[in-house]
Amino acid sequence: MLLPADTSALSEINGVDRAAVLLLCMGERAAAAVMAQLAPAELLRVAHAMSRAGSVKKHDVHAIVDQFLAACTQHGGANAAPRAYLERSLAAALGEGIASNVLDGIYGDRVRPKLARLQWVSVARLADVLSREHHRMQALLLAYLPADLAGQLLRALPESQQEALLLETAQLTRVDRELLADLELIADRCLSGLSAENADVPGTRLAAQIIGHVPDDQKRLMEALRAHDATLAESVEASLYSFDILAYQAPEVIDLAVGEVSTETWATALKGTDARMRQVVRERMSRLQEDALTQAMRRLGAVSAARVETARSEIMTVLRTRAREANLFLRLADGEVLE
Q1: How many CB atoms sit inside 10 A of residue 281's CB?
Q2: What pTM value is reported for the model?
């Protein structure tokens, strides 16, 4: 990118190249904050211009920066109030609940910038995550994505789901704050594997599946793995003790978890399970606990897969710990047990 020494010749430099110079001058952190607001196509053009920017003369930089500041002065007014300032002011005047609703209407909501970054995640990965969510959460994610990406994502889903999902999206009116928090968790899951999206291998889950098929040597293999890497062994063991095996447990094993896990956690964990799984748990509950569980499941409504997985993990951790203390075995399936 060649920059003229003469300020009057700045008109020869296009807007992308000027933006590249400004970003190079403002430092990595400030430049990153600006680039985070760009659309993918814009970001690629600017990044390409920055990569081919050679040495820039000092007076050329001054000319570009001066022109930028002049434009800011001409078009800028009073600085906009930051959200933190408005949040404190409105909370004092209206109360926190109303203030949050007002701010969500003004600013959209806190998750929009994070959801905008999902444009960099492959449609296949988004579709995979979306397919495991409740239909209400699917519609919510679709509604908050840019329209072009939402259209691509809808086409990537099975045709049998597309019409129902579009109808659910059209029926959205008001979104609870808890659902927005769940939506942010889903976005985090999508973005967490972005840097290594093409290299993800579920090693711990595969190792657990392998160990699960050698019942005679499970204890020996787990002990060997634990001796080599205790943290890795814990991850493999967690995969081995998936929530699905709860349906195969003896009544005295179920009792260990029912007596310690809260009704709210059970209600969350049982979302999306079949009738057999729910019956196994309900049979070990008192009448009072069972009624509380029914009410909790109705009250919760749609719950994100991330919350469900967290609740299930909590239950299985309790079950593994208490079973080990009571010297009881956990069945993997069809009569297999793990000591």
Answers
A1: 22
A2: 0.41
